Write a sequence for this structure.
């Protein structure tokens, strides 16, 4: 990609991220697939025990919302009564199993033609009462989250302590979306240890995290902490739902007294639009890395967008676009990913989706490789 094309991509990112500001600033009515949050005009706690989204679904989602709203195959009241993720009054269980089948052709040097177990998580939530929850999520490899959460703050606010994925940006289910993959939120390095607080006044959400700054690690090896902030405001104007917000993360890293301090700052806007059967969810982030010493600072840019059309209940047509430039100040090379496909929520317990993804690589100092196309079919079993 030439410098003019790269500048055009950056400008397109600015325009795309500015769109929700037209709608998100209007007050209105206030389901963690961000697409569902946009479609229903709600924050992620409508469906998930973790208010930042993802992981175990709450009883309302498992027993009512998914069987009656999301899935193609609906269940009547008698069938829904058999969905019992609650063990007694105080323990909720759940699971997510995702298997991918990937095909890239014989000429794709970077990609494999095989099956991949993307996710195998089991969830346990121990609820003492409506305010206190102990949460455990164990996944494949070294992926896990374990935290305690208490709803003690005003505006239905919470405090969370333990190891978790911090509130930052959109939690796209596609872990290879560049705003997750390139910003350090690709499992198993997506979690950190710390404390997080959030409040939800009206149609707004404000979340603050204080963290070790050692994503994916159990212990920290320096005396510096990281902070993360996420804000969002939702609204509806003349039948068009929208949200505008942003995220910021600051991390000072120092391996020891004799090593210079390395600072990393990441932040940018996020938003969504929802109109009739269409939804758009997008995020853009800039990264500023200051390595210390005589090395120059580096500013990178990354963005991801998803557009979906709801055809019938359970079936969405989906298109995505991601862009990454590791250093906007030099001809460092860029990468893009365009994808199109569908997601079919056949039953409350089974989803099949397929995407054709095309990667375009503009080689430079920091980006190498060849263009390639990959087809992925995903089988998702959930409870």
């Amino acid at each position: 990609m030439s410098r003019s094309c790269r500048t055009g991509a950056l400008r397109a990112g600015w325009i795309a991220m500015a769109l929700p500001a037209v709608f998100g600033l209007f007050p209105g009515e206030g389901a963690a697939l961000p697409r569902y949050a946009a479609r229903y005009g709600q924050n992620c706690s409508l469906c998930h025990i973790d208010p930042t989204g993802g992981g175990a679904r709450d009883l309302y989602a498992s027993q009512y919302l998914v069987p009656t709203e999301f899935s193609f195959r609906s269940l009547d009241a008698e069938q829904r009564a058999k969905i019992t993720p609650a063990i007694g009054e105080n323990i909720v269980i759940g699971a997510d199993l995702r298997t991918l089948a990937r095909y890239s052709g014989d000429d794709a040097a970077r990609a494999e033609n095989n099956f991949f177990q993307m996710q195998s998580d089991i969830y346990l939530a121990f609820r003492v009462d409506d305010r206190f929850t102990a949460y455990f999520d164990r996944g494949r490899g070294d992926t896990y989250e374990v935290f305690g959460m208490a709803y003690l703050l005003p505006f239905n606010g919470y405090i969370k302590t333990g190891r978790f994925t911090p509130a930052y940006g959109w939690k796209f289910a596609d872990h290879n979306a560049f705003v997750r993959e390139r910003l350090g939120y690709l499992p198993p390095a997506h979690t950190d240890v710390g404390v997080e607080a959030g409040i939800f006044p009206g149609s707004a959400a404000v979340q603050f995290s204080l963290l070790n700054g050692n994503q994916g690690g159990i212990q920290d090896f320096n005396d510096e902490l990281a902070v993360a902030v996420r804000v969002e405001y939702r609204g509806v104007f003349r039948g068009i739902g929208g949200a505008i917000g942003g995220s910021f993360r600051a991390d000072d890293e120092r391996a020891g007294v004799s090593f210079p301090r390395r600072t990393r700052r990441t932040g940018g806007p996020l938003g969504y639009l929802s109109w009739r059967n269409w939804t758009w969810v997008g995020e853009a982030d800039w990264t500023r890395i200051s390595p210390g010493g005589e090395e120059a600072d580096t500013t990178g840019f990354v963005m991801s967008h998803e557009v979906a059309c709801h055809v019938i209940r359970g079936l969405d047509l989906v298109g995505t676009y991601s862009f990454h430039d590791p250093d906007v100040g030099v001809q460092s090379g860029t990468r893009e990913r365009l994808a199109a496909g569908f997601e079919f929520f056949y039953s409350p317990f089974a989803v099949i989706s397929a995407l054709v993804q095309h990667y375009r690589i503009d080689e430079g100092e920091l980006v190498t490789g060849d263009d390639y196309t990959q087809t992925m079919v995903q089988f998702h079993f959930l409870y």
Summary: The first helix runs from residue 3 to 24. Residues 1-31 have pLDDT under 50 and may be disordered. The radius of gyration is 21 Å.
